[in-house]
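Hey everyone, long-time lurker, first post.

I ran two proteins through the pipeline my lab uses and got sequence/structure pairs for each. Pasting them in order. The first:
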Amino acid sequence: MSRGFDSGAAAPAENDIVLRVDSLSKSYPGVRAVQDVSFACRRGEVHALLGENGAGKSTLIKILSGAVERDTGSITLDGQPIAPASPIEAQRAGISTIFQELNIITSLSSVENIFLGREHVWFGTVDRRRMRREAQGLLDSIGAHIDLDTPVKRLSIAEQQLLEIAKALAVSAKIVIMDEPTAALSEAEVVLLFAVIRKLSASGVTVIYVSHRLEEIFQICDRATVLKDGRFIKTVNVDEVDRVGLVRLMVGRDFDAFFGAAAPASQNTVLDVSGLQAPGVSDVSFSINAGEVVGLAGLVGAGRTELAMALFGAAPRQHARFCLNGREISPNSPRDAIAAGIAFLPEDRKHQGLVLDLPMRFNMSLVVLGRLLRFGLLRLAEERRVVSNLARRLAISAPDLEVPVRRLSGGNQQKVVLAKWLASAFDLIILDEPTRGVDVGAKVEIYTLIHEIAKAGKAVLLISSELPEVIGVSHRILAMKNGRLVAEFGAGPTEEMVMEAIAG
């Protein structure tokens, strides 16, 4: 892939530009979602779109994909002005969008999904043989090894994403927008997706790539456009900027303050685990002191989440000795673990941490409902006081306490899960991927909260796939591989040292 151009450098020749956005604006009642945004994409480049939640990325994507109508401004594709009023019109113009929630109908076959609404017909009959032949050709062109006879519901998320890409190519897309495409993928699936993106780029298709994972931007993107508070900040060449520079552009603060400063831990042991045997975990022993953040690093399948589930009583274990503040415990269920003083923020917040269709108020008070009862009745005023204080403390952005938590952003949903535990009394909190799917600004807030929890004398077990995060936040790091702890590091190891331990 060739690198793009910096907004401060000489612009490329006009015929290099496939998409141009000029002075685009969109407002909702009381909110200016996008304000006078202008940028351009080159043909065949991978162009990152970056910013915190609320920066305007989602609105801009919806405008380009025809899901939302702009108020002012213009969009030009291959020199021709376009104004897509629907996703179908955007696709016809040459813009296809692959949202985080995939638009795949699992009851249909792969071929039917690729040609949905564009079926080939021969003398009044669907030409399935031709569609199958063309579908196979599209999948082959991007190196996707998908058996057309496998039911779509049995395909992995990565394979379903490849189907979406094939659908885009079936309508001759010039622009493919990918919204958080790796959020639910394993490392191996990310490698496969990146290979496909490079094939698209090499064939002249422009990819607009939206992700909160900065390391991916440096792996796959040519240029990056940064938005903040609905406004254009800057377009930069990815190979001419570093993580420090991108963070500063997105959040308006220096990188030195990104992970925050951890206070020294005490020598008083809060958690002591000896000989833990559980599915996916083999003979694990470790301890965490009061005020200490211990990071747990490992590749997918290393046993990190299995370890967390066993500690929380959410998974069976064959053998273990747990001591919490010098008292031996044996949690056989989450209820037992909570009663003993253990809190757990799960990896999958939507299915394991939240009740999405119920109000934010209910989700935040769920763990302490027993404390809020009097004579079997819920003290609503006390519940609202507790929840309101937590919402202010965590700076949760929501119209009111009664909003269904499903309607909140990923970062605010994660804060609600954290608030639920902060309302309770715990000695140990297990955080499994606490910043997954949240923007850079929310990450900084979560890191600050982790340090506050540790400063209060609590023990923290931090599980994360992001090595800079584990290294930046933790006092100590445990490396896990194949269900076992294989190394321990004090403060400040390099990423290479940790990766060598977990990958071998």
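...and the second, right after it:
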Amino acid sequence: MSAERSQHTPGPWYAYQPAEGRTRIGRSLNGLSADYVCTLFDGPNKTANARLIAAAPELLDALKDTAGYLEAIDNAANQIGERSAIQTKLATIRAAIAKAEGRK
């Protein structure tokens, strides 16, 4: 897989609705204008979908930070001979990160 597939438009993103009506996701450029990211088709869940998509960069960053934190805890537990249930959670987090980055 190419490195390009794992790249995304940097956040923060936000949802907005221009005059023509379709809900869009964009990011602020110098707080003045919107850099277009994608357009959502209208539907009953468009507002909820827009909020979720707009939060995607922050969600990905939070997952990466949490994975690093849990790995450190798991490593410490393993060093003192304690079995850790964190590995199961880490596998789920790693799979979500891989999917978001286009590696799965």
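Reply from user beta_strand_b:
Welcome! Quick read of the second one: The first helix runs from residue 46 to 79. Strands lie at 13-16, 23-29, 33-40.
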